[in-house]
């Protein structure tokens, strides 16, 4: 009986040792794994947040879309800038063209033909009637008739001064001087010199006293080939 008990004890001890070794191995494995995790920083990964990822993906798509719109707008702005530059260039070209035409018109307006026609058109109907047999035609023809009838133009201006119609008289006087200055070399014309009043050489206007010094020359007389053609009309004061 004693032998059997000893045998049983030995068997139990053996089984316990085996179980103990198994448990020690398990614990050793656990400790080794923990050690490895600590060494390799193998902490537990946080749980995946699917909703957060969806929001991020949605925001990425929105940003990509906005970038595309921004690129389109930038291209449109560049295109508009080019169009603006082209329009500015065309405007500058038109301005230069207009300025050139204005210069040409200014030069043209200074020619005797155009000046004469402009002055003639500015006269009132009554004055034009007085000149209807003196100034005829357009442009060159009008100017030629003025040269041929220079004495008559002077007479109309003289009459208007005597009638105290100074506004129209000055216009006709300007016509006379325009034609005179252009034709004087050909026709051998010279203006009369006006210094001291002389009844033989000058004519007083209606506003002048009987005697006195010359205050103003209203219409200058002239000579043709050295011979007096028209006496100057003066105002005494």
Structure, explained:
The protein has a domain at 112-236. It is 68% helix and 10% strand. The protein is built from 7 helices and 6 strands, in the order H-H-H-H-H-H-H-E-E-E-E-E-E. It has helices at residues 2-40, 50-109, 112-122, 125-131, 139-148, 150-162, 166-187; strands at 189-191, 202-204, 214-219, 222-224, 227-230, 232-236. Helix 6 (150-162) runs antiparallel to helix 7. The radius of gyration is 59 Å and the shape is rod-shaped. The termini are far apart.
Output mean pLDDT.
81
Order of H and E elements: HHHHHHHEEEEEE
The major β-sheet equals:
3 strands, antiparallel
Structural class: mainly alpha
Rg of Cα set: 59 Å
Total DSSP E strands: 6
- Overall, the morphology is rod-shaped
Discrete helix count? 7
Helix content: 55-70%
Order of strands in the sheet with the most strands?
1-4-5
Beta-strand proportion = 5-15%
Oligomer: single chain
Distance between the termini: 181 Å
Low-confidence stretches: 42-46
